[in-house]
Amino acid sequence: NAGVMQNPRHLVRRRGQEARLRCSPMKGHSHVYWYRQLPEEGLKFMVYLQKENIIDESGMPKERFSAEFPKEGPSILRIQQVVRGDSAAYFCASSPQRGDTQYFGPGTRLTVL
Amino acid sequence: KNEVEQSPQNLTAQEGEFITINCSYSVGISALHWLQQHPGGGIVSLFMLSSGKKKHGRLIATINIQEKHSSLHITASHPRDSAVYICAVFYNTDKLIFGTGTRLQVFP
């Protein structure tokens, strides 16, 4: 059973470009969570999704950030018009049920030049 | 004040020592995670617990819901235990709120 997959592992973007981060949950997991870790800071919750639904997006910046988890395919975290402050590690986690143990992917390290 | 506080922030130990990392939280929770983040950045879930005590190998985690406190113990520490240990609490069952982590270095 493969673990949580994230790609790309490293992403470099110039200011103003778009970044798309992908997360494939573990098989049988329908709950996906995105977290951000800024340099030298702790992890922060961004958004919680279940298939085709956003359950809690209270940690998402109001502008430029969006997330989806379609019926088929991976969950996508999209950052439009990236700025230097978006440089961070973005982790995805999945769980089989709400409130269950979360299993983390390896993360995507975004660098904005 | 952070909702989840960990202590100490940094910890060094000699191989073989008994390690304790503490976590206190101020919100009502349904469960608590202990996570390990290696220097490469990957995050591994060590324990999820909502009461009592759990043990896995040399790792032991305890939680006291009334006192809002949890501890992670490592017995017979080894250099490969060197990592950042993160306490995270389930808030409203939806999301994790993380402590700032404890950086552990174990020297041979």
Would you write up a description of this structure?
- The complex is a heterodimer of chains A (113) and B (108).
- Chain A is mostly beta strands and 113 residues long.
- Chain A is 0% helix and 50% strand.
- Chain A has strands at 5-7, 10-13, 19-24, 31-37, 43-50, 53-56, 65-68, 75-79, 88-95, 103-104, 108-112.
- The radius of gyration of chain A is 13 Å and the shape is globular.
- Chain B is an all-beta fold.
- Chain B has no helices and eleven strands.
- In chain B, the strands form two sheets. In chain B, strands 2, 4, 5, 9, 10 and 11 form a six-stranded mixed sheet that branches. Chain B has a five-stranded antiparallel sheet with strand order 1-3-8-7-6, with no helix packed on it.
- In chain B, β4 (32-37) and β5 form a beta hairpin.
- Classes of the chains: A mainly beta (113), B mainly beta (108).
- At the A-B interface, β5 and β10 of A face β5, β9 and β10 of B.
The N- and C-terminal alpha carbons of chain B lie at a distance of: 36 Å
Radius of gyration from the alpha-carbon trace of chain B, in angstroms: 13 Å
Helicity of chain B, as a percent range: under 10%
Number of strands of chain A: 11
* Structural class assignment of chain B: mainly beta
Number of helical regions of chain A: 0
Distance between the termini of chain A: 37 Å
Structural class of chain A: mainly beta
Strand content of chain A: over 45%
The overall strand count of chain B is 11
Whole-number radius of gyration of chain A?
Answer: 13 Å
- Count of helical stretches of chain B: 0
Question: Which features characterize this protein?
Answer:
heterodimer, A: 113 residues, mainly beta, seven-stranded mixed β-sheet, four-stranded antiparallel β-sheet, 11 strands, 50% strand, globular, B: 108 residues, six-stranded mixed β-sheet, five-stranded antiparallel β-sheet, 0% helix
